[in-house]
Amino acid sequence: MKWILGFLPLHLCGASLAPPRSSKGGFCFPRTRGRVEGANICGTKAGLREQRQLHTIASSGSRAHTHPHPLGGRRTLLAFVLSSEVPVNLALPSAMDKLPSLLARLTTLGATLHTLPDVPSIGRHLMRALRGLLVYDCLSLAWRTGEEAWIWQSTRPEDVPRHYTPAGLVGRVMETGEPLCLPTLADPADVESLSLPGGPPGTAGALILPLSGEDAVRGVLIFTTLRPALLSSESLAVGQLLALQVSNALHNVLLSEALDQSEGMIMALAMAIEARDPYTQGHCQRLSAYAARLGLALDVPPAELATLRKGGILHDIGKIAVSEHILLKTTPLTVEEIAEVQQHPLRGEAILRGALPGHGRLLLPIVRHHHECWDGTGYPDRLAGEAIPHLARIMAVVDAFDAMTTTRPYRRAMTVSQALEGLEAGAGSQFDPTMVSAFVQMVREGRLVVE
Questions:
Q1: Would 259 be classed as within a structural domain?
Q2: Smaller CB count within 10 Å for the chain: N or C?
């Protein structure tokens, strides 16, 4: 039985990261005298980004251009050990005529990795999927994580805690960010540094590929062989593409975890702000529900529905900077007080921009623009018509409806019928008329329960 050793991260601790993207690119390897001389990345979404980041992967010698990727984490490693019944080495499966099929499988692998929900799932799928795609004796994936590190071994009944400290060749790659392609390992110290727990003894060759973050190498892919001289420039080129796919997939999962942590803190802050004003308690939860129902009626995609729900909670978070005296005032506001209130969308955007990474920033247009008016008379940017982000237009309608149907310090609540008439009166001036029509119809037909 051969061992496949894989190291993966447990979680990411917050950093402002670029939005994750699905992997839909394609790969192209030009030939020169029967050899792979470089790899270009092209395609849609992720592919376009990688094309900018990594125009050509050098495939000659033992060095290659590295590519930055917005990944984060801290200085320990999570490890997984998986077993394989397949005897393998790290040469390409066959000659160049099989390269198009191999590249297609790499593309498919990347797309699949992006659908997996967590790091262990990515690790298990990666270890299985590479059997027959590349041939090697041992594959390792090391990644920086929090203060703890774990090693998971598939032949054991439960997870066993174990730490891994990168040293030797692996430590060099993590420090320099430069890949190493070593067809033959001559130095016993290098062999020893690659003798990882649970792996096969007698390593003869290695390919070590960095997985880079914004400011440092966050992990490595390690392919090792038991026989010398099996590695090649083609192995390096394909390995670099695989490393890019793995980096992107891990980025998605780790970003999601960081976003969940950040959103939890921000949600708690939003609830604390709402608690300052007894007249608006429950407003954010109602808005979250109303916005999602209206978005559903307007055929908003599922991902945007989730953004609407969060936007309902967070839309007024900038009011943390508004005086409680103003929020609870029962008489008309002065010009200066109105100006202070109208700053809350900008302040809310600034709070969330600094606190939420990646996908969390999809909330920013809702927070900034939910007080814009269809006719351009709103604030803070006086946007008009469809220049107003559509999720912000949805939020404007449901925000106004909930405000009208709840008691405020300066007036009593309207009836539902009165509030719907108010929305219809503002359609085409304050509100997007299409969204008003959809919301009014939904309420009158009983498809939205008004709390």
A1: no
A2: N
Beta bridge partners of 40: 28
List the CATH number of the domain containing 145.
3.30.450.40
pTM of the complete model beyond 0.70: no
Strands of the sheet containing 217-225, edge to edge, are 76-77, 138-145, 217-225, 205-212, 180-182
Q: What DSSP letter does each residue of 153-166 carry, written as one string?
A: ETTSSS-EE-----
Helix (H) or strand (E) holding 44: strand 40-45
What 8-state DSSP symbol labels residue 299?
A: T
SS percent in the chain: helix, strand, coil, step 5: 45, 15, 40
pLDDT of residue 79: 35
- CA 21 – CA 303 distance, rounded (Å): 13
Q: Which two tokens stand for residue 310?
A: 């969060």
Question: If you search the block for the tokens 């946007």, which residue do you land on?
Answer: 383
pLDDT tens-digit readout, 416-449: 999 999 999 999 999 999 999 999 999 999 998 8
Q: Please give the pLDDT value at position 203.
A: 79
Question: Do 172 and 38 have their domain in common?
Answer: yes
Q: For residue 81, what pLDDT is reported? A: 31
Residue 142: strand pairing partners: 220
Q: Cβ contacts of residue 268 below 8 Å, gap of 6+?
A: none
Domain extent, residue 355, equals 276-444
> Alpha-carbon distance 122 to 10, whole Å?
12
Measured CA to CA in angstroms, residue 391 lies from 192, 306, 373, 432, 435 at distances of 57, 11, 13, 11, 10
Below-70 pLDDT ranges, the chain: 1-99, 119, 132, 134-135, 144-166, 195-201, 213-216, 258-263, 357-360
Answer yes or no: do 18 and 152 share one domain: yes
For residue 183, whether the previous peptide bond is cis, meaning omega lies within 30 degrees of 0, is no
pLDDT of residue 259: 64
pLDDT, residue 315, reads 92
* 416 within domain boundaries: yes
Which value, in Å, is the radius of gyration of the alpha carbons in the chain? 27
Collapsing DSSP to helix, strand or coil, 408 comes out as: strand
Q: Do 426 and 381 share a structural domain?
A: yes
Contact between 80 and 151 (Cβ < 8 Å)? yes
| pLDDT score at 392 | 98
In 3D space, the residue among 176, 185, 186, 189 whose CA is nearest the CA of residue 207 turns out to be 185
Q: At 162, which amino acid appears? A: R
